[in-house]
Design brief:
The complex is a heterodimer. Chain A has ten helices and seven strands. Chain A is an alpha+beta fold. In chain A, helix 2 crosses helix 4, helix 3 crosses helix 4 and helix 5 crosses helix 7. Chain B is built from eleven helices and 15 strands. The chains are: A alpha+beta, B alpha+beta.
Chain lengths: ~325, ~400
């Protein structure tokens, strides 16, 4: 296993480094886990942007809070805040923040994983846009609760209406947060819903949510390879998405996530070791093979520093099984 | 042996011993050098045959397990390449220990080598001298090793070896041309490419941009290309007016190569970066693609004259295009547009336009990377040389 798998209640299903046997595969299937990272000896584990403990805690708390809302209780905003402060603090401490979500989720608990992920992603974009702590907190709350309406309806339009009613009746969230939640399906060019708002009529946090929510929906369970998701965001910039939000997002994301196998134009092959901020197509590659054969020990090429090198091809897709 | 302090006799004996060794000569050499107590690693890097500025590690040996040293080793080789003279100094490893290096560029038969020696203490002056004595032997051993059959992967065929200089000549010489709005990529499929891409700085401050494509592949195409390049470079010292450059080029080409049944297509433009204005003429080459930020649409630049070598005294229409802020221009060779997918469909204008639309927020370099990524994903392996220049205003 290239990465520890966390179950729906935040329990650890399988630890990183464990050899994957048939028995374990059955065990994972029972938990609806479909995609896993297999370590191929390269020893470059995809590194989550937040610590495992923080993610596990965020997941289980989100589950509790939303669970109680579903059963008719009021939204306990204090508990939500605690979860988010932990995430924001951890992200603010990193000096070179890159989006690298190691995200293996189970189908039955999709909503909680998605909510936590969108909260993390939105916070990263907020930091990139130099949001104050206070603004970050609001953005993160909107992100974590953006799909709260889905507790009661899977319908794309209905859940927005339900969210507004619910938040008005069962919480004292400020109007900005409620607006962001209810506008996260509005498009920059006015082609979204429910109100068909466009440009600056949509609040800034909702414009960010539009990007991060789409990103997470598309990258869930490696439905699309990272580059395709990013290309989609770039392609829809100015129509579906606000260009400034996309640009901020792109600064923190890499085409080739850590652990991706790539071939360079020099014929050297290796694994992506680190991403370079602001250079989404130019990571640091640990060369494991060159024209003269296997390279042992490996050397590294930083594509951001060496302009004549470039990635020619991506060699692996995420192993499915 | 406690220090590396070799005399002439010792070194020539060492050389003979390495040649006769059962393992490959470079491995034998490394083993010998590592016998010295304070030497911790040695490595040899060679210039990449096709990618300008790139180095590939030919050999590396070290004592014990310290992976970080191999990472530092790459940086030192690159630095040695930059300075083009022997360098020495120290780096601090994660273990907080210092590692001392000495590195020198060496001229080999197939390009430059970079020879690094790592030591656990500072090397003395006389040891630098001893290593300089050793250096020519390292070059000879490396040349032998690289021309042996086990390394046939990168090796250019023996017949081609003598003409490898052409390869280097065909590469754009835009050293020190640090312009953010422009980037280029070349991805040859053969040892010798039939594409020619060049970027020249004109005396009036404008940039001369050209992409040309010779009929055919391999050696014949490369020879024709070299000639066309030489004439082109000469003509542009006299005039940089696109219509004149191509007309002159065509006439020279016919007088030199009239009896050879071949032709070259070439695009040449003069770009005024301050105004964003490109004045250009086209000799039968693929029309460049102009992406307009305002409309999000990509179109071909109009105008396409006769290929060079086609007809004497051909005239070339000179046209002008203005790039608005955010506009993108791609000048490219056949390989980009004609890359075939699994279903035999061409990458085409469609593929280029789609990529530009998606990558329009990026700078020229990012757009280049995006084009490579998309053409590789479209194609079933690369079958033709791919070269292109991207300008983003």
């Amino acid at each position: 296993m290239g990465k520890t798998i966390i179950g729906s209640n935040g329990q650890i299903l399988l630890r990183q480094g464990v050899k994957l046997t048939d028995r374990y595969i059955d065990h994972l299937r029972r938990h609806w886990i479909e995609v896993v990272y297999i370590s191929t000896g390269s020893n470059v584990a995809p590194q989550d942007v937040i610590r495992d403990q923080t993610r596990i805690k965020a997941l289980s708390e989100t589950r509790q809070v939303l669970g109680r809302v579903k059963r008719g209780a009021d939204l306990e905003i204090e508990q939500v805040n605690q979860v988010l402060v932990a995430i924001i603090d951890e992200l603010l401490l990193q000096d070179s923040l890159m989006i690298n979500l190691v995200d293996i989720r189970s189908h039955d608990e999709e909503l909680f994983h998605h909510s936590v992920n969108v909260a993390i992603l939105s916070t990263i974009v907020g930091i990139e846009l130099e949001y104050s702590q206070k603004k970050l907190r609001k953005l993160a709350v909107s992100a974590l609760l953006h799909d709260i309406g889905k507790l009661f309806s899977e319908d794309e339009r209905e859940h927005l209406k339900l969210a507004r009613r619910l938040l008005r009746e069962k919480s004292d969230l400020d109007a900005g947060v409620v607006n962001a939640i209810c506008q996260h399906h509005e498009h920059w060019d006015g082609q979204g819903y429910p109100a068909g708002l466009s440009g600056s009529e949509i609040c800034q946090d909702a414009r960010i949510l539009q990007v991060t929510n789409t990103f997470d929906n598309m990258s869930t369970n490696s439905r699309y390879p990272m580059e395709e998701v990013i290309e989609y965001l770039m392609g829809q910039s100015g129509t579906q998405f606000e260009p400034a939000s996309v640009r901020a997002f792109l600064n923190c994301v890499s085409f080739y996530p850590v652990g991706t196998m790539v071939e360079l134009n020099t014929g050297e092959r290796g694994v992506v070791l680190r991403s370079n901020r602001g250079f989404p197509t130019r990571p640091v590659v640990r060369v494991e093979q060159n024209q003269f054969g296997k390279v042992e020990p490996c050397y590294e090429v930083d594509l951001a520093v060496h302009p004549t090198y470039f990635v020619k091809n991506r060699l692996d897709e995420v192993t499915e099984g | 042996m406690s220090i590396i302090l070799y005399d002439r006799d010792f070194i020539s004996n060492l050389y003979e011993a390495c040649l006769q060794s059962e393992s490959t000569p470079l491995v034998a050499l490394g083993e010998e050098l590592l016998k010295a107590d304070d030497v911790s690693a040695i490595s040899l890097w060679s210039e990449h045959a096709q990618v300008q500025g790139a180095l590939t590690r030919v050999a590396y040996q070290q004592k014990g397990k310290q992976d970080q040293l191999a990472v530092e080793d790459q940086k030192i080789a690159m630095r040695s390449q930059e300075s083009q003279e022997p360098i020495n100094g120290a780096v601090t490893l994660p273990t907080r220990k210092a590692a001392y290096y000495w590195s020198t560029p060496l001229a080999g038969k197939r390009g430059d080598y970079y020879f690094n020696v790592w030591c656990s203490r500072r090397l003395r002056e006389e040891e630098h001298d001893a290593l300089k004595l050793l250096a020519p032997h390292v070059v000879r051993l490396a040349d032998i090793v690289l021309s042996s059959d086990i390394f046939s992967v990168q090796r250019v065929n023996r017949e081609l070896e003598a003409t490898q200089f052409i390869q280097k000549q065909l590469m754009p010489q835009i050293d020190g041309l640090d312009v953010g709005f422009l980037a280029y990529r070349t991805l040859p499929v053969h040892e010798l490419g039939g594409d020619y891409l060049d970027i020249l700085r004109n005396p009036d401050g404008t940039l001369g941009l050209t992409v040309a494509d010779a009929m055919g592949h391999g050696m014949p195409a490369a020879f024709v290309m070299l000639m066309a390049r030489t004439i082109f470079r000469l003509i542009t010292t006299v005039t940089t007016t696109p219509s004149e450059v191509l007309a002159e080029l065509n006439n020279h080409f016919i007088s030199q190569l009239g009896h050879v049944d071949t032709f070259v297509t070439q695009f040449y433009g003069r770009f005024d970066a301050a105004r964003g204005r490109l004045t250009y003429a086209n000799a039968g080459h693929n029309p460049p693609v102009h992406f307009q930020r305002k409309t999000g649409e990509a179109t071909f630049l109009p105008g396409r004259g006769v290929a060079l070598g086609g007809r004497p005294n051909s005239e070339y229409t000179q046209l002008e295009v203005e790039l608005a802020q955010g506009d993108i221009l791609v000048i490219y060779s056949d390989g980009l547009r004609e890359a075939r997918g699994a279903d035999h469909s061409q990458f085409g204008l469609e593929g280029i336009a789609q990529t530009l639309l998606k990558y329009r927020e990026y700078n020229a370099d990012g757009i280049c990377d995006g084009l490579i990524r998309n053409v590789m994903r479209h194609g079933e392996g690369q079958s033709d040389d791919i070269s292109f220049i991207v300008i983003k205003r």
